[in-house]
């Protein structure tokens, strides 16, 4: 989305970090004290299961369409923190991006890796790179998890789901009766349904 990660200025020389078209619009409207009409429409069926720990959860996001997935991850992390979500939860984020520069929200990702044991499967369609998740390891001098971009093969998400190590991981999740959430362009959603 236009404005993702750009810094934009608003009155008084302040610099504000914007992350998306809607954030930019709302920040601009707030700066002008402009009324913004709003209607909330709930998406029936697009919510976490009543017992999220009962079966694996797989979030598939394409490009900048990760916002609903991050909202689900935040909901799970908050439930864990508040003691509502007891026991383990099996959560995987499959994220297709064009290049490593489009990987944002690293701090949030690492927080979910730490709090929920989030598994990340990230592929880059326009860069010869892969994302490596380094788990917390006090003996290695890494008290918190970290992300590292390493050389690898460029691949689209549909290719990543059918070749290499990913198909086995995804197949195991399907066998375990995982709940899949797809968020991306409608034409790609059809392709992903076929691949899955």
Structural summary, described in words:
Helices cover 31% and strands 22% of the residues. The protein is of the alpha/beta class. The strands form 3 sheets. Strands 5-4-3-8 form a 4-stranded parallel sheet, covered by helices on one side. The chain is globular, with a radius of gyration of 18 Å.
Helix and strand element order: EEHEHEHEEEHHEH
- Overall shape: it is globular
Report strand order across the widest sheet: 5-4-3-8
Strand segment count: 8
Mean pLDDT: 81
Straight-line N-to-C gap: 27 Å
Helix content: 25-40%
Q: What is the tally of helical segments?
A: 6
Largest sheet: 4 strands, parallel
Q: State the secondary-structure class.
A: alpha/beta
- pLDDT < 50 runs, ≥5 residues: 1-13
Q: What gyration radius follows from the Cα positions, in whole Å?
A: 18 Å
Beta-strand portion reads 15-25%
How is this structure best summarized?
This protein is of the alpha/beta class and 196 residues long. The protein has helices spanning 21-31, 67-81, 106-116, 157-160, 166-175, 186-195; strands spanning 7-10, 14-17, 57-62, 91-97, 119-124, 129-134, 146-151, 179-183.
Which helices and strands occur, and which strands form pairs?
Elements: E1 7-10, E2 14-17, H1 21-31, E3 57-62, H2 67-81, E4 91-97, H3 106-116, E5 119-124, E6 129-134, E7 146-151, H4 157-160, H5 166-175, E8 179-183, H6 186-195
Parallel strand pairs: 3-4, 3-8, 4-5
Antiparallel strand pairs: 1-2, 6-7
Helix pairs in contact: 2-3
């Amino acid at each position: 989305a236009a404005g993702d990660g750009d810094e934009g200025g608003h009155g008084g020389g302040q610099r504000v970090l914007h992350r998306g078209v809607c954030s930019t619009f709302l920040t601009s409207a707030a700066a002008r004290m402009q009324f913004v009409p709003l209607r909330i429409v709930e998406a029936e069926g697009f919510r976490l299961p009543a017992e999220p720990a009962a079966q694996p959860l797989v979030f598939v996001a394409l490009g900048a369409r990760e916002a609903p997935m991050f909202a689900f991850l935040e909901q799970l992390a908050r439930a864990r923190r508040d003691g509502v979500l007891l026991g383990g939860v099996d959560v995987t984020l499959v994220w297709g991006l064009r290049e490593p520069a489009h990987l944002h929200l690293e701090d949030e990702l690492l927080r979910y890796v730490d709090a929920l044991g989030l598994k990340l499967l990230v592929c880059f369609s326009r860069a010869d790179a892969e994302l490596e998740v380094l788990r917390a390891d006090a003996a290695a001098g890494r008290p918190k998890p970290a992300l590292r971009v390493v050389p690898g093969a460029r691949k689209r998400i549909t290719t990543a789901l059918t070749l290499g190590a990913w198909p086995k991981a995804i197949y195991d999740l399907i066998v375990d009766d995982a709940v899949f959430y797809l968020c991306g362009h409608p034409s790609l959603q059809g392709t992903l349904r076929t691949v899955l």
